[in-house]
Amino acid sequence: MGGESTHPDHAGLSWLNPPLGMKDKYRTLIEGVCRKGGISDPEVVLERGHLAVNGISFTLLHAELADPDLVLIYCDFGELPRDRREQALQRLLEVNLYLYGGAGPGFSFNKDSGHVLLMAQVRLPGATVDSVLTALGALAAYAKEWREGHLLNDMRDHSPAASRVSLGSAAMKDIQHSPFSIANT
Fold first, then answer.
1. 121-130 pLDDT, tens per residue?
2. How many Å apart are CA 176 and CA 55, to the nearest integer?
3. Which three-class secondary structure state does DSSP give residue 77?
4. Strand, coil or helix: what is 119?
5. What is the spatial distance between Cα 127 and Cα 144, in angstroms, rounded to a whole number?
6. Residue 55: CB partners within 8 Å, gap ≥ 6?
7. 147: closest CA among 72, 94, 88, 97?
8. What is the pTM of this model?
């Protein structure tokens, strides 16, 4: 498991061969997410990493070479607003400050699509189908909240407490009790 590579260009680079157990765990996890979420062909999700939850696009990638027990999650929050763009960017940076815990999550910007992304990660050893579905549902709800007001509705109060209130929104707290749809994209 994770031993020396047999590829001549990779001699001595054991990190290029991730432990097979994590590859299997990732496959099992994605297959379970697809089964429980109603996606009939998990191979498409395994191959491309794309799926949608409640109409919000996600990319899930197994970071098998860099960190075999890590799944990277990219949630597409959509475009920046045309009006108040600078305020929205400032708000994202403020939220990043409160979200940051050493391992994320965090907001980013994809210059190719022009969309804001929320990047998160899941550790395979502790991941379950239900925990991943709950996380995807919560992120989808937060993305919808972003699309409605770009987190600017409480910008009048710039206190740290106001920032934490928006992070603990009803969408984030109530997602466990909300049904959601999942589809491959």
1. 999 999 999 9
2. 17
3. strand
4. strand
5. 24
6. 140, 144, 181
7. 88
8. 0.75
3-state secondary structure of 57: strand
Q: Which residues contact 84 (CB under 8 A, 6 or more apart)?
A: 150, 152
Among the listed residues 164, 170, 79, 180, the one whose alpha carbon sits nearest the alpha carbon of residue 132: 180
What is d(CA 182, CA 185) in angstroms, rounded to the nearest whole number? 10
Q: Which residue has the tokens 């969408």?
A: 171
For residue 134 the two structure tokens come to: 């709950």
pLDDT in tens, 122-171: 999 999 999 999 999 999 999 999 999 998 876 554 444 333 333 334 33
- Residue 70 zone, left/alpha/beta (φ > 0; ψ -120 to 50; rest): beta
Residue that is written with structure tokens 């407490």 in the block: 161
Which amino acid, one-letter code, is at 81? P
Strands (E), 13-134: 50-53, 56-62, 70-79, 106-110, 115-123
